[in-house]
Amino acid sequence: MTGKRRLPSFKKTALELVQCPLCRGRAITKGVFYELPCERCNASGWVAASGEDLTLEELVTQLSLNLKGAMQSIEQLKKPQASGPGATYQGSNRRGAGGTNYTGD
Ligand SMILES: [Zn+2]
User: Fold this and answer.
1) Is residue 51 part of a domain?
2) What pLDDT, in 10s, does the model give residues 10-26?
3) What's the gap in Å between 13 CA and the centre of ligand 1?
4) Residue 36 resides in a domain
5) Distance, CA 20 to ligand 1 centroid (Å)?
6) Tally of structural domains, the chain
7) With pLDDT > 90 as the criterion, what percentage of the chain qualifies?
8) Does the pLDDT at position 78 exceed 60?
9) Is residue 53 domain-resident?
10) In a domain, 93, yes or no
11) What is the whole-number distance in angstroms between the Cα of residue 51 and the centre of ligand 1?
12) First-last CA distance in the chain
């Protein structure tokens, strides 16, 4: 039985986020006397690449989605590259190209 009814909610997809151009990703801007939270990016340092304004709630979700993706990438990078038992070392046997710099006549 296909008991589960899908809710007609939007599917949350990760928007592309880019560094906030105003604070350059620092999430704060320099005020006259002290640093202020950047208003442009809700003090997150990130804005939608599309330039659309994100509500704080949406921004948190987007940051979460992006962070999740980033964490997954990190985990994958951490995994030792499984290579067969007979993994062959391919030492690069580069010989420096003779650096003769002839500018003679
Ligand atoms: Zn900003």
Assistant:
1) yes
2) 677 888 999 999 999 99
3) 22
4) yes
5) 5
6) 1
7) 55
8) yes
9) yes
10) no
11) 12
12) 88
